[in-house]
Design goal:
This protein has five helices and nine strands. By secondary structure, it is α+β, with helices and mostly antiparallel strands. It has a single domain, classed as Sulfate adenylyltransferase. Strands 1, 2, 4, 5, 8 and 9 form a six-stranded mixed beta sheet that branches. Strands 3-7-6 form a three-stranded antiparallel beta sheet, with no helix packed on it. The longest helix has 12 residues.
Length: about 180
C-alpha cells in the first residue's frame, strides 16, 4: 500500500453526524432586520467560531447553542438527549451580572459588527467546575472555564465576512 492509496477519496456517500446537515444562514437583509432594536451580546472569538460552526453545519445535528437539557446530557453522558454521541458542550456564556431581556439578542463581534441573531428560549446556570472536570478531567485550569450563565436555543445567524451567528440564521453581507 502506498501513501497515494491511503489519500485517495473513497466512493462512499458522506453523511453528516446525526444524519442531516444543518444550515442556519440568513441573507443580509433578513439578518439586519432581525437585529434591529435588539439588545447586543459581544461574542469572544471562540464563541464566534462556535456560531460559525453551528450556522454552517460543522456541528450538525446541533441547530444552535445547547439548552439546559442538551448541556446536562452532554456533560454527564457525552451524548445528546436522543443518545447521539456528543462529548463536548457547545454553549454561549453570558457575562456575570448581564441581564437578558427580551427574546432576541443581536450577536456581535468584539468590534460591534453583527454576527447573528439569537432567539432566547432559556437562560440557565451551570456548574463550571463540575462540567470542566467531567468533560476535560480533574485539575482543569480555571482559564478553560467560561461564564456561568448560559443562553439556550434557538438561534438564527447572519453571515458577514465569513462569520455567522444566531439561531443559526446567517447573513452574507456584500458577498454572493
Amino acid at each position: 500500500m502506498s501513501i497515494t492509496d491511503v489519500a485517495t477519496p473513497r466512493e462512499v456517500p458522506t453523511v453528516p453526524h446525526g444524519g442531516r446537515l444543518v444550515d442556519r444562514r440568513l441573507d443580509a437583509e433578513e439578518a439586519a432586520e432581525l437585529v434591529q432594536g435588539a439588545p447586543s451580546l459581544i461574542l469572544s472569538p471562540a464563541e464566534a467560531a462556535d456560531l460559525r460552526a453551528l450556522a454552517t453545519g460543522v456541528y450538525s445535528p446541533l441547530t444552535g447553542f445547547m439548552g439546559s437539557a442538551e448541556h446536562e446530557a452532554c456533560t454527564h453522558t457525552m451524548r445528546l438527549p436522543d443518545g447521539l454521541l456528543w462529548p463536548v458542550p457547545v454553549c454561549l456564556g453570558v457575562p456575570d451580572g448581564a441581564r437578558i431581556r427580551g427574546d432576541r439578542l443581536a450577536l456581535r463581534d468584539v468590534r460591534g459588527r453583527p454576527l447573528g441573531v439569537l432567539e432566547v428560549r432559556e437562560v440557565y446556570e451551570r456548574d463550571q467546575l463540575g462540567e470542566a472536570e467531567r468533560v476535560l478531567g480533574p485539575a482543569t485550569p480555571p482559564i478553560l472555564v467560561s461564564p456561568g450563565s448560559l443562553v439556550g436555543p434557538p438561534w438564527r445567524l447572519p453571515a458577514r465576512s465569513g462569520l455567522w451567528s444566531g439561531r443559526w440564521t446567517a447573513w452574507r453581507a456584500g458577498t454572493r
